[in-house]
Design goal:
- This protein is α+β, with helices and mostly antiparallel strands.
- It folds into 2 domains: 77 residues, Nuclear Transport Factor 2, Chain: A (Roll), CATH 3.10.450; 29 residues.
- It is 29% helix and 31% strand.
- The protein contains 3 helices and 5 strands.
- The chain has a 5-stranded antiparallel β-sheet, covered by helices on one side.
- The longest helix is centred in the last third of the chain and has 18 residues.
- It is globular.
C-alpha cells in the first residue's frame, strides 16, 4: 500500500479519487473538525491505486477513516490518554478486569431479560 501526506489546509476531498462513501465520511469528519487545528492528512492506497484509508491529525488526536467494504466506512479515533486522564484497560493487579467482567455479566443478564415471546 502506498501512502502520501498532504497539508491539511490544501486538502479538498472532492479533488482526490475517493469513493462516494469515503468522500462523504471525510466531508462529515472535516465539518466536525472545523474548529480544530488540523495538521496533516495522510491517504493510503490499495494495490489498485484506489484510496482506501484517510487519517486526519487534529490537535493531539488522529481520526482514521477506512473503507472496509464497498460503501462501508469504519471510523477510528486515537486520542492522547494523558490529556483526557483516561485509564487504560488493566489486567491482573489493577482490578479493572474484574469490574469489566462484572459489567459484562450484568449486560448479558439484561439482554436475556429483554426477550419477549413471539405472538402466535
Amino acid at each position: 500500500m502506498e501512502s502520501r501526506t498532504v497539508d491539511a489546509d490544501g486538502f479538498v476531498p472532492s479533488e482526490h479519487g475517493f469513493t462516494d462513501a469515503l468522500r462523504e465520511a471525510i466531508e462529515e469528519e472535516m465539518d466536525f473538525l472545523d474548529d480544530r487545528d488540523l495538521h496533516l492528512v495522510r491517504m493510503r492506497e490499495n494495490d489498485d491505486g484506489e484510496i482506501q484509508q484517510v487519517t486526519i491529525q487534529a490537535d493531539d488526536e488522529m481520526y482514521r477513516l477506512s473503507e472496509v467494504s464497498p460503501g462501508n466506512v469504519s471510523r477510528t479515533v486515537f486520542r492522547n490518554p494523558k490529556r483526557d486522564e483516561a485509564v487504560p484497560y488493566q489486567d491482573g493487579d489493577g482490578g479493572d478486569a474484574e469490574a469489566v467482567d462484572e459489567a459484562d455479566g450484568e449486560a448479558e443478564d439484561d439482554e436475556a431479560g429483554d426477550e419477549t415471546p413471539e405472538d402466535g
